[in-house]
Amino acid sequence: MDQVFKALSDGTRRRLLDRLHEDNGQTLGELCARIDMARQSVTQHLAVLEAANLVSTVRRGREKLHYLNPVPLHEIQERWIDEFESPRLRVLGAVKRRAEEAMTDKPTYVYVTYIESTAEKVWDALTDADLTAAYWGHSNVSDWRTGSRWEHVRTDGSGVADVVGTVVESERPGRLVTTWVAPDEEGQDDKYSRVTFDIQQHAGIVRLTVTHEDLPDESARADVASGWPAVLSNLKSLLETGHVLPQEPWLMPTR
């Protein structure tokens, strides 16, 4: 049990367990693609998780697949929670969930597209200032490190940013999370929305999932529901054909 608590005390190891919870049975390479860390360091963290029996491995040919083992976590629950506090915690958990749902009941928009490309090229298309200028009409400007500021800057030479925010997560080439807000509302916590780009490679294609959450109202959701498909279609065209669509798709009439 001491090894389990030691393994869980590190944030990177908890993230590795989260990745396996999302998609069990990953190779070292697949796990490294989602963690901004050297391969050797990820291997060391996995060794700690294996020693604690939180991760088990299975050989498949030359590959080693990593699987989440929930048994030690279940034993912790049985030893310290179920016997004493389970009924009371279930009630408190239900109250907490209802309160959180009431407080965060803001519209969310999700868009998924499939692109014939690589995860690295899709990542670059989302973060490179010149590439975003080509298909988005704005340059996304940042160093893309976690905690850094980013700006959505007009390409007319004015230097004006129509959207600003913070990089919340940056795990090239698999996941990018940013906050979005109008520059004149910066610093007002209730005005921020949040955009997550999940980039998943499968053979020769990439599934790009964009989740835009914490939108202020249904009107804002309707706006992004028309904007994201246009922008991402232009990105898809650029990566697959080498050029953007012949007309700016966001200017196409909706009816």
From TrEMBL:
Question: Known SUPFAM superfamilies for this protein?
Answer: Bet v1-like, Winged helix' DNA-binding domain
A family per Pfam: AHSA1
Ranges for domain HTH arsR-type come to 1-88
Which CDD domains does the UniProt record give? HTH_ARSR, SRPBCC_CalC_Aha1-like_GntR-HTH
**Which PANTHER family does the entry link to?**
TRANSCRIPTIONAL REGULATORY PROTEIN
Task: Provide the family line.
Answer: Belongs to the AHA1 family.
According to UniProt, the name of this protein is: Metalloregulator ArsR/SmtB family transcription factor
- Organism, per UniProt? Streptomyces machairae
